[in-house]
Fold:
Amino acid sequence: MSILIGRETRLLVQGITGREGMFHTAAMMRYGTKVVAGVTPGRGGEWVQDCKVPVFDTVQSAMNATGANVSVIFVPARFAADAMLEASDAGIALIACITEGVPVRDMMTVSYYLDQNGTRLIGPNSPGLLTPGESKVGIIPGHIAKKGNIGIVSRSGTLTYEVLYALKQHDMGVSTCVGIGGDPIIGTSFMDVLEMFEADPHTERVVLIGEIGGSDEEKAADFISDHMTKQVVAFIAGQSAPPGKRMGHAGAIVEGGAGLASDKIEALRRVGVCIADHPEMIPELLS
Amino acid sequence: MKLHEYQSKQLFAEHGVPIPRGRMALNAQQAKSIAEELSGRVVIKSQVLVGGRGKAGGIRLVNSPEEAEDVATQLLGMNIKGLSVRRLLIDEAAEIESEIYLGITNDRGAKCPVMIASAEGGVEIEEVARTTPDKIVRVWINPLLGLRSYQARFLASSIELPRKHWKAFTQIAKGLFLSFMETDATLAEINPLVITGDGRLLALDGKMVLDDNALFRHVELAEMRDIDEEEPAEREARKYGLSYVKLDGDIGCMVNGAGLAMASMDVIKLYGGSPANFLDIGGGAGSEKVAAALSIILKDPSVKAVLFNIFGGITRCDEVARGILSALDDLESDIPMVVRLVGTNETEGRQLLADADMVTASSLADAAKKAVALAKENKLQ
Structure:
């Protein structure tokens, strides 16, 4: 009862021996995610996480030996493009890139190549995905969400946690939570995820968490108007952000009059989406 | 990272784009000697990282080296939109017959670079886009194939550039594309690209913005950063790996995560307050980073109250609490503070702060309301 990840997910961690990789692999395993392999070039043959997870030198050899079908990337920004291309070439169908700070030029070539290969990429600069009770791929704290029928798609990390937490306090559960990432060029858009939620029989309502920059929210509004039958509630961060200033996320910037929060809110409202004034209002709007 | 005009044009020239003869001067004496070298009429252009320099009186045409020295003296130290002029570009004056626009940036939706041309040069392209959008032509560039000649010709013919200039235009378009790609730029703009009286194409003004995330592979470009043009607090924040943007309100904010930081600012505004800054301490920040962040916030004299909103995931609430306490040991501030700690080690965090004189809040809305009230109260005193 989910999209993208679930019980069938067999996870490969690229950068498993690094500080972040180690820490979050342990958290994912505690949550119950099937972590079947790790990759760190030069460390093949080792076993990590209390000798439960084998490490390989290449994604291809890890896949051959373990049948991994999803990869999560924790490698530093300068190696992230290579990691994504390697996973795609090895035939991984779904990649979640947690790494923040990947150069835009790298993402242009990577997106182009992954599209040709038919690889789905979540991120970069994403907190990953969570299907409560089944699988956690990335860094979203597992204990703040319970299983349910609300789909969540967001460009942010901690703001998403805030919403998960508010939902849980109202005893509302989540089918899958997808963090698509805060960078200007990302693999999967709001529209892609909305389409999956619309098709998922176990998702009944959807929460969209957007922010300033780009026009992905406006495209989502068009999609909602033409194709969504399920209720969508949204919050857009950055109404008080001045133009021309990057608000932390590489993609969160109002440029040349485009990417304003007010335009996004207006576009979504016009197609019947309820807009929350603040994130803690979302549970009320859903009930 | 924004580059100055003289730096941008130098990079264009290295990729085969013709630019006027000229050099950068740091003082009036240098300006005079450059004007002597160039001989004849020169343009003196203030180098500040902000648009509208011409309208602000920062660009002047002079007829002699002596006049160049005088004008340079006037311009240096001049204030343009809050930035002080410290560098000048002395360029030979060009005889302008017509002006066009040529720029390149990333199209986020199309996930590739887009080159933009317009017959309306010398004005802001956003202005042209708003008033006469049909005067703007775009070509999207495959990142693996690069800009092809036919695409440059398409731009040239679409803006009705006379055929005799197509060859030079194509060379400039390709040069601009290369400067953009090789420096990991997010914007490269020639505005105006002029046709001179003697029939040459010349990049009269240039602007570039580089991708901060790619500076690790451009050490020489990273050194071009003009730190004088930055807000000192923003520079200090970068040193500690904090993301800080100064705003004009009176409630200082410290939040973990960019989206949550923006949302916290929005909620402050929703309840009638005004944020003094955007500040994201990032994921997993230790107490040292938190202390640095708090001291940056408290250095801002307009701050009348501080709001901490920490949602602990990788970040541990007790670490944040320790950071706050250690900063307060050094700073002795009497600014009222509201703290909301949720998530990893929240109980330990709250215990640590129990003895400090701070207002606690259970939700973001509650925290914002309290901060707004305290800021108002503090302002009246």
